[in-house]
TrEMBL record, chain B:
<feature type="region of interest" description="Disordered">
    <location>
        <begin position="139"/>
        <end position="165"/>
    </location>
</feature>
<keyword id="KW-0560">Oxidoreductase</keyword>
<feature type="compositionally biased region" description="Basic and acidic residues">
    <location>
        <begin position="139"/>
        <end position="157"/>
    </location>
</feature>
<dbReference type="InterPro" id="IPR000674">
    <property type="entry name" value="Ald_Oxase/Xan_DH_a/b"/>
</dbReference>
<dbReference type="InterPro" id="IPR037165">
    <property type="entry name" value="AldOxase/xan_DH_Mopterin-bd_sf"/>
</dbReference>
<dbReference type="GO" id="GO:0016491">
    <property type="term" value="F:oxidoreductase activity"/>
</dbReference>
<dbReference type="Pfam" id="PF01315">
    <property type="entry name" value="Ald_Xan_dh_C"/>
</dbReference>
<dbReference type="InterPro" id="IPR036856">
    <property type="entry name" value="Ald_Oxase/Xan_DH_a/b_sf"/>
</dbReference>
<dbReference type="GO" id="GO:0005506">
    <property type="term" value="F:iron ion binding"/>
</dbReference>
<feature type="region of interest" description="Disordered">
    <location>
        <begin position="1"/>
        <end position="24"/>
    </location>
</feature>
<protein>
    <submittedName>
        <fullName>Xanthine dehydrogenase</fullName>
    </submittedName>
</protein>
<keyword id="KW-0500">Molybdenum</keyword>
<feature type="compositionally biased region" description="Low complexity">
    <location>
        <begin position="1"/>
        <end position="14"/>
    </location>
</feature>
<dbReference type="InterPro" id="IPR008274">
    <property type="entry name" value="AldOxase/xan_DH_MoCoBD1"/>
</dbReference>
<dbReference type="InterPro" id="IPR046867">
    <property type="entry name" value="AldOxase/xan_DH_MoCoBD2"/>
</dbReference>
<feature type="domain" description="Aldehyde oxidase/xanthine dehydrogenase a/b hammerhead">
    <location>
        <begin position="24"/>
        <end position="135"/>
    </location>
</feature>
<dbReference type="Pfam" id="PF20256">
    <property type="entry name" value="MoCoBD_2"/>
</dbReference>
Amino acid sequence: MNPFDYHRAEDAAGAAALVADNPAAAFLAGGTNLVDRMKLGVTAPDTLVDITHLPMDEVEELPEGGLRIGANVRNSEAAAHPLVRTRYPVLSQALLSGASGQLRNAATTGGNLLQRTRCVYFQDLSTPCNKREPGSGCSALEGYQRYHAVFGASPDCVATHPSDMAVALAALDAQAVVQDAAAERRIPVSRLHRLPGEAPERDTVLAHGDLITAVELPAMPMAARARYRKIRDRASFAFALVSAAAAMELAEDGTVADARIALGGVAHKPWRARLAEEALIGAAATGHDFAAAAEAELAEARPLPGNTFKLPLVRAAITTTLGEVADGVRGRGAGPDQGEGER
Amino acid sequence: MTTTRAATATGTGPRRADGPRKAAGTAPYAYEYPVADLAYIAPVQATVARGRVLEVDASDAEAVEGVLTVLWHANAPRLEPDPDLSGLQRAAELAVLQSGEVAYRGQVVAAVVAETFEAAHQAAAQVTVRYEQFPHDVDLSDQRSDAVAPEEDHRQGDTAGAEPADVVVEHTYTTAMQHNNPMEPHSTVAHFDGAALTLYESTQGVHEVRRTVAAIAGLDPRSVHVIAPYVGGGFGSKGPLHAPTALATLAAMALPGRSVKLALTRRQMFALVGYRSPTLQRVRLTADAQGRLSGIDVVATVQSSALADFVEQAALPSKSMYAAPNRRMGHRAVHLDAPVPTWMRAPGECPGMFGPEVAMDELAWSCGLDPIELRLRNEPDRDPHTHKPFSSRNLAACLHEGARRFGWDGRAPVSAARTENGWRVGLGVAASTYPVVPPPSGSRARIRYEGEGVYVVSLGAADIGTGAWTALTQVAADALGAPLERVRVRLGDTTLPEASLAGGSTGLASWGSTVHAAAEAFRARHGQAPEPGAEAEADLPDNPDGDDFAMFAYGAQFAEVRVHEATGEVRVPRLLGVFAAGRIVNSRTARSQFLGGMTMGLSMALHEESVVDGRFGHVVNADFAEYHIAANADVEDIQAHWIDEEDPHVNPLGAKGIGEIGIVGTAAAVANAAYHATGVRVRSLPVRLDDFVGA
């Protein structure tokens, strides 16, 4: 790890300005991913701007029935918050399915969104990686691909975004509140992260120095019965092979009036399954319809030789999650609980 | 050796003697000793898998503030060319920075020594190494013509023509490459004071370290002092020495008077201290229609290293496991441009009982037999390999007791029969075995009476977390007829009498027998009312029965496996093991050993796999996010039991050794249960959702 300067930020705009002015500066929040990367040499900032003391650590109700979660709210606090648990249990489930108890106690909402891929080649300085060193090549393209993308990848990068929380936020139409040196703006979480294209070194649409100060969740009645399902090799403390966050609203005739589906572990970003959503609208909400929705999304899938098994997992994640949501909406089986989370 | 002492403390479960010190953080580990004039070592590792270091440009690294030296083969101190090493050491692996040859990716090609940890690591990243690169070969396969048989195959009869062959099971079973990852990584602190070298080392045997380091560094062993009273886990990789210890010794030679320290990062653990070779086991079983074996044929292909040889003895356990007139067991080793493999908990038996125990399950299904009944029908009355009688063999009792405790009787006789809440449920069983390895000679123990009823027992054994501190206290207390709290044990230091390595599950048998002998010698010389200062020493006694019996511990492991219908996820809600391992000296620490072994077996079954990227030549999933080890949530209801087994032949304690048997057979039990759950036979570890999803 290289020596670095440390600044404790006074306010959000000032922090944004400090980082914006120095291409080698970085924000420090929970540090659970950044510090790991610094130890590995993947990232070598010369300046850290510590934002953990900024007043962004509240969960507040919004006037229209939504919720605002400060960027510094720890993952464990967000998961345990009564308003999150009752209005957006899917977010609580997603948070609790991620990392370990110790990490969730340290990791923040903003930091979770901006964590970087765990692609083994990205983290291994001895191998080429376009994301770490643009133009050096993608080692995963013909390498170890178990955790890699099946949607939206490019010949330059097949990495996935590792967050569970972001998948739930994408399904919930959440917005990131972003502060730069001059102003504040809002970006939908589903459009915050990029597909790799020819510039995999850029994870998000944020400019250097943009600071996420909060995440805002709109009021969404169907969110109360939304669910998160994470499929992984290890029963805890493992990144998703595939995960799904799903919400559904049924019309009086029992057909699907509205739906939200987002997938994790499958793309460079939390993957909003819009083709599956479209296929569901007006459908009868049977297992057959859920399978058809999954197939609609899978038409876009481009698996790698080492992760073709993810296609049936995507199918299973969508159909089982929608099935559980439908049971809950119809008053059967799993209701709006707080999720099994980490066992 | 037919008299065993009436036990008082042995067989009970006193708390760990070292527990409070470890819980309070006052038990020092190698890296933690407060030594003066510290300096830190940061290795620089090869980024080619085969080649030669042409030049090391250390100018940028040397410019980093606090850097003391940058070592590479052109300037490193010389190690002795003619090391007098014990059979378990690999001289080539220890010849660190002695030439520019690169034999595997990740090999140490340079090292920075600096005043601070941070400076050392910053500078290491700035060392530029120029290589001449050669093509490398890291592809293990059982189809290679250059595989060599390291010894003649063991043959009895003719397996190819074995009759009857009403039923034949013939498949290739594979186990994954695995890496030892004790909680405490390999760590060394080294300090030269004149010709005297002090090493604080995370090791399974201080005397082995002394002997080896003295041999490679050209020192008188008496001038090497090795200290390791507490070790944060050792599963084999801390038995033989590896490159990091040699590197720390070199750095101490280069900087006399400084205490240089090195603790491997987790990532370095995947390159520098060995691994369990992957295995490809060709197993062929022939039997009559009633399941009586006529032939057992096991040929295991494993990988070794072009740098030095180590052949995982995966075919070994089949030699003595089941009766069959026609037998062949052999190994084929492929020498690759890879690090040298090493011991990992139950080397040989652990991977080597996967293929045959899954094959036995397949045979049971083919014969329409309960897999327990199949094993009972093939119980040998003598060791099929040596034809010697068993000192005791209670596999059948373990199978019966396990079946009773596990509820085996309710198991459906067909596969894929039971589904609960979207999970397919199945039960499986496999056998475990581990030999009673003859303890290496040379252990010696000293007992001294301090007065006021207090005895001090000294020997240089290493407690790697097994419970030796506690169990040896019990053994001494019983042998002396003294209360537990009046016995003080001293371990883990070369100033104490020599003790054998903690390996092969021999610790208690070896050190316990030695302590037992020392206590008898003490009483013989000093009687029941010794003077303060009275002392006696004794060596490990010979076992007069050692050549007359085949000696093994046995076990039966039962698993309940759930496989999700839609996602293929594999979970193991129940694991139960019953073991027959002679006398259990400490029920508390023994249970921990069994459960720890079974958990590690579960981890092998479901998770552990080091992924080598052939283009580069190294393990790419080299951290705990990607190399999965069973976490708490993977382990649900897990139980270890044992049967009371009297074995008067193994040693004066009647104890067989329990450190390794718990990991043997677990993975086969899981794979067999997964088959029962789903009807899908998985012959390759780890067993993961890709084996079932869509199936």
